[in-house]
Every structure is written in C-alpha cells, then in structure tokens.
C-alpha cells in the first residue's frame, strides 16, 4: 500500500472504524423487536448500550480529516473540458491560470459539535440514576397473584407519582447493571407505589425467588432484597378529568396503565362527591378490555372486582361500566360451559359482575350507543395498545362526532 505525504497509516485504520458502525444500528434494531424485548430483555438491554462504542467510533472516524474538500484555486466549471491543460506549465507559466492541479484540504472535524450536547445530557441522566440507586426503597408488601404474577408494594422517601407513569427497578443482588421498566399500578392517593411483575424471564424469576414467591409465604419485609428505583417517568394521563364521560380502551399489555388511572379516577370522583374536594367533571366511565387470554392479567380482574365492591359500598355502581372481550383461547366446550352459568350473578371466567364477551367489539355500534346515551356531551376517548386499533378508534371518534350531538375527543396514550 502506498503512503502519501504526511499520511499516518494507524490514523487511516482508526478512521476506517466508521465503516464498522454500519453494523451497530442493525444489531440494535434487531434486538428491539417485541419478541426479544419480551423474552430476552438482557439481550435488548446490553445491545442497546453498544451506542457508547458507536459514538466513540464516530468521534475517531473524523479526527485525521480523511474527508477533504477541494480549494478554490481550481475553477471546476471553467476547467471541466480542459483536462489536458490541468497544471501544464510553459516557460514557467501555467497555460491555464484557472486550472492548476486540484488541491485538497482536510476539513476541520466537527462531529463533536453535533454530539457533545446529547453526550452531556446522557452523562447527567446516568449520574442522577446512580445517585437515586442509593436512595432507600422498602418493599412493604408482596402479593402473589395467579398466572405467575407478583405485586410489589414499595415505599421511598420523596417519591411522587402521577397515574400512567412507569419506573425502572434494579435488584443489585441479581444484577448490578440491569434496570427493568415497569408500569406503576398504584394511584397517587395510595400511601405506597406498586408494580405487577409477570414472571417471564431469568431476571423476573430471580426476583420472584428473592422475595419468596416460590415459598408458601413471602419473606418477612425486613428480609426482602434491596431494590433501587429510578423514576417515575412518562407523561401522566391528565386530560381524563376534562370530560363528563370517558371511554377507556386497553388492548393486550396496554391494559396495565389503566390500573393506576382507574383507581385515580375513582378516588378523585368519590372525594369530589363526598368531600367536595377538587372540581371533578367526570360522571361516567366506560372501560373496554380486549385480550386474547385473561390468564396473564388475572390480577387486573381482581382490581376490577375490588372497584366493583367499592362502588357498591358507596352506592355508585353506575360510575364504571366495564366490558371484557376475550378474542381467542376458547372453544365449543368452553362456550357450552359458559352458557350453563349464564344466569349466575357473576361471570364464570372472571368472577366479575359484568359478563365476558367473546369475539371483538363492534366499535361502530358502541360509539353509536354512547352518543345516544350522552347527547350534546364531550366524551374523552383514551386508548393504549396496538397502532391498528388506535387508527380504528380515531376514525370512530371522528365519525360519530357531530355539532349538535356528542363530540368524541380521541387521546392516544403513550405509556
């Protein structure tokens, strides 16, 4: 390989590291797929931290000025068809003064200018997380739910949350580097904050074992493992109290944030009604839960049952109407068994007062009926789940809104 004047081969080698950076985004994108995130979170977590190497290579890539620009002494337009005269000298003078041999100069590296800001912000965020990891977190209660789900109720000095937010949890006895995100399922009115954790991986299995979920009884609170909590993060769901009627739709895992939101709605509503605390406009909530299998979220059925009991106790049974739609996981024998128990007061699947529906909701019919029941009312529609259903609900909100009737205002929740 030839060596040019002032060329340092080692710098050229380092500069070519930028070529390897093309593989990094591919690895990151692949590991961000839902299957990897759900089943192999450790792979997702570690591969995403490749970006540190990515930024290091980006900085090194331009240090020696491999990318060069031509100076202005050579007139590109004028000399385009005079190639034979480029740099030709006769009697010590250029034949074409505007056409000397092109010369190139290294550009001043400027990568740092574009990435220094994000790097500084990232370092600050990491320092804040590092400091928070030393703040004491107490597991006040652990609850075992069906279908391999545990609920951790925790307390931490100075912790303040809003409905619909999430936190990161680290258990140093399991891993000193891994932080896992979990949606908060408690409400701001409760004296603790909680998460529901489904045991579906090495880390969650280790955590369940650490708190004693595999024993007959959980560990004594004083013997619970130490946890670090960072957060809460995310946009709080704040607009629900701007409407007299709300429609909440949760699909699949998108139902989780509504645990916190519905409890917050109930506490706010009952405080406003009984104690004249606040100015709650909300009078009615419709909740639609669409799931392929209720087993993974049996804990959510328990929450709905608890709300039903509280509403009956406060004589406010009309505040919440909830409908569960089971989209698959049932057959003819299952349907026959359900039909035999149709006259019972509680649902045979969930144990709730509201009966389970089988199949998918007829949104056109649902929105039409809601607009009839609440004419000339502004109705908030809140959804968390897949994008396809989001588009459908948005279209239904527009279709069934009218100037002289009900007006549906669509709000896509991003949790």
TrEMBL record:
Lipoprotein found in the keyword field: no
Domain FAD-binding FR-type: 132-239
Molecular function terms from GO: metal ion binding; superoxide-generating NAD(P)H oxidase activity
UniProt keyword annotations, A-Z: Cell membrane, Glycoprotein, Heme, Iron, Membrane, Metal-binding, Oxidoreductase, Transmembrane, Transmembrane helix
Annotated Gene Ontology cellular component terms: NADPH oxidase complex
Domain of life: Eukaryota
GO BP terms, alphabetized: defense response; superoxide anion generation
Entries under Pfam families matching the protein: FAD_binding_8 (PF08022), NAD_binding_6 (PF08030)
Mode of membrane association: Multi-pass membrane protein
Chain segments annotated as transmembrane: 43-63, 111-128
Catalytic activity from the UniProt record: NADPH + 2 O2 = 2 superoxide + NADP(+) + H(+)
Compartments where located: Cell membrane
PANTHER family: FAD-BINDING FR-TYPE DOMAIN-CONTAINING PROTEIN, NADPH OXIDASE
Protein name in the entry: NOX3
